[in-house]
Amino acid sequence: MGLFSSKKSIVGSDLLKGAVDNHSHILYGLDDGVQTQETSLKILDWLGQQGLSELWLTPHVMEDVPNTTEALKARFEELSALYQGPVKLHLAAEYMMDNLYEKRLSEGDLLNHGEDSVLIETSILAPPLDLWGCLERTMSKGYRPLIAHPERYRYMSKEDYSRLHDMGCLMQLNLPSIVGYYGDDARARAEYLLQKQWYCMCGSDCHRFTKIKAQYEAREIKRPVLKALQSLMQL
Question: From the centroid of its chain, how far is CA 31?
C-alpha cells in the first residue's frame, strides 16, 4: 500500500459535510484576508455547497492590525445581514501574542471563541519574549488559550507541544497543513499532533477563495489521517 493510499481530497472525502470551520479570515476588509463583500459571500456560498455547517470568522488583531472589538462586531453584523445561506456564522478573533494582546487581556477586551477560549497565535519563526508567562496570564484571567495552527511554529519542539497540552491549552489544526500547503515540516508536525490526539478542532485559515478551493481539492490525504479528521471536523 503506497504512502498516499487514500487519494481523496478534502472536498472529495466529504469531510466538510456537517463540519465546523473554526478559523478563517473571510470577514471582509479587516486584515490581510478577504477584502470585499462580494468575495466573502462567494466563499460562503461555496462552503455552503460543500455542506459546511458552521464557520468562525476570526480576523487578525495585532499591533500592526489593531482592529477594535466594536469594529469587528459591526462588520460581522453587516455580513450576517447580507448572507442568507445555510452556514451558521460566529465571530471571534485571532490575537497575536504581543503588547496589544496583553493590553486587551488586562482590560478583558477579547472576543471569545466559544464559551471561554481565546484564539491566539505567535510568529511562525520565533516565540514572544514571554510565551509561557503570557499563556499563564491568559488562564489567570479565566480564558483558555486556543493555539492557532501550532504545527506551523517552526521553533516548537515535541516537548513544547507536550507542555501546551499538559497546562490545558487547546490546539487548532489548519486543514491546509495536512495537504502540504505549508511544507513538509508543517505536515509532519500536524500528523504528529493528530496522532497524539492533541487537536480539539480544525480550521481553514482561509484568506483567499482561489487558495481554499485549491487546498480543499488537493488529492493528498493519507488514509489514517483522513480517518482521524472525520471526528475532529465536527467540533
Answer: 15
